[in-house]
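User: We ran a pulldown and think these components assemble together. Before we commit to crystallization trials, I'd like a predicted model of the whole complex to look at. Sequences follow.
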Amino acid sequence: MTGPPTRHRIAGLLGVYAGLGAVTACALFPILWALSGSLKRQAEISQPMLLPAHPQWSNYVEVFARMPFWRMLFNTILYAGCVTAGQVFFCSLAGYAFARLPFTGRDTLFVLYLATLMVPLTVTVIPQFILMRVFGWTDTMWAMIIPGLLGSAFGTYLMRQFFATLPIDLEEAAILDGCSPWAIYWRILLPHAKPAVMVLAVLTWINVWNDFLWPLLMIQRKGIATLTLGLVWMQGEYVAEWPVLMAASMLMLAPLVVIYAIAQRAFVSGIAATGFGGR
Amino acid sequence: MALVTFDSVTRHYPGADRPALDALDLAVTDGEFMVLVGPSGCGKTTTLRMLAGLEPVDAGQIYIGDHDVTAADPGHRDIAMVFQNYALYPHMTVAQNMGFALKVAKTPKAEIRARVAEAAQLLGLAELLGRKPKDLSGGERQRVAMGRAIVRRPQVFLMDEPLSNLDAMLRVQTRNQIAELQRRLEITTVYVTHDQVEAMTMGDRVAVLRDGVLQQCAAPRELYRTPANVFVAGFIGSPAMNLFTVPVVDGAASLGGYHLGVPREISSAATHLVVGIRPEHLQIADRGIGVEVDFVEELGADTYLYGTTVDPQTSQSVVARVPGNTEVRRGARLSLGFDVTALHFFGSDGARLG
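Assistant: Here's a predicted model for the assembly, 633 residues in total across the polymer chains.
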């Protein structure tokens, strides 16, 4: 272990913490500003103060009056839940196949699939829109669920890299124990891949939760809209009533924070295990 | 009755210039403890993996009992394997690990519990059944891996260097446990190791492999006493057998100025011979091979003398194992005598003569 702290070491640590503190402040400030804004009066919104003199909790009540918040929350959870489950399932299956099952053209196919990561969403969004119209799914829940359900290049890559690090002995032991490839995946590798699954699930959930472009293109009806749409529509209808908008943002953020708080430990260790940390 | 039979089994890895295993013929009898031994790359692990079904067979057949299992699924071969690093499922408890194969085979739960408990009792694992592999010591993991194999009551146990991850003391202890367990359960076992001490102490018979070719398969004592060729002679035994290449002139061979009593029927046929003698068969004597001692290793009970023959043409290295109380200094010149019956003769192709 290290010896007693020297003056030099303390100075170094102070520097590190100051740096980290600065970065944290930069990341947290906008959120604090929104939180403070959600408690202000409309007239106070541009005043540079974090704590308003009279917190306007009524802004939050107003949110529920102006948008079908619960309905939209339910929709968003439904979409995020379905897409996350699908992503985890299909990406881990595909990742397992790409990492372990021998078949002709496996590596070429993987590289090609991976290359689709480089294609920006804006390039594919119009063809996808047309596809949805052909299927008759525009302005339905299907458009929100199906396209994301069947996996993604990123998720497949993440899972493949993780499976590739698992010792091959585990699989061979399972083969000798009489497992089929499906049983190896389902009973041995997937339980073992919890850290990677956790990372993929949290990232996917956040992605769907925050997605705006795709719901904007697909959804017209309030009944099946997501929270992001609700937020933007509110802006249009009520000429940017900022305090209410910010209250709505805070409400939308809350479930994510709760999920992250619960999954945080697993998520962080997952990031380390999958090699996605900034090392 | 042969339980496991390799019939001209060959494995050629794509891109390799020689087969990893070349036309192996080997029969393991029922209840036998067969050890495959050889230096790394000799094909011993390949042999085991082919028997397990984890490696394809390019030519030849493998039989377990009367069944040709050459193309059978690993799960249908009625075998169990202990891996070098145990390959325990990290997310399962000891009990779940041990019972997993039975669960996959849809064995009733009560029977799984009973068989796991029985194996745990046998291996002293009863207290550990609820633990996960990460909470076990190396030796405990090794026993769980054994238990996982035992629970299945297979026809054949396969073991791939199961002791190589243990420290020296535990290895000796576990070595004896495994050998005893195998004798008690009377399950045919094929055991791979690179350690010749393991091979000699555990195996009913030992198969020595080199470069994919079976060199000799015999009981440990026979392997030691009558090695079939120069490779086996040099591989089995520690320190290794002294092997001298000597020219045969007029039907006689000599080394370090000392005449070796080579039988006429052996010397008449060759111009060169390889003569082998075990270090323990050399003693300091008045007459014998002239040797200069380079190095002395005192081990207490024994002393090893490392030297070179005093021979102007070809000086060759020699090891002698002499009693521990022998006092010899480095640089000393002495004669090493031996009994002619202790000599081994090999032809220039390496094969045993006589």
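The CA atoms of residues 64 and 262 of chain A lie 26 Å apart. That may be worth checking against your pulldown data before setting up trials.

User: Thanks, that helps.
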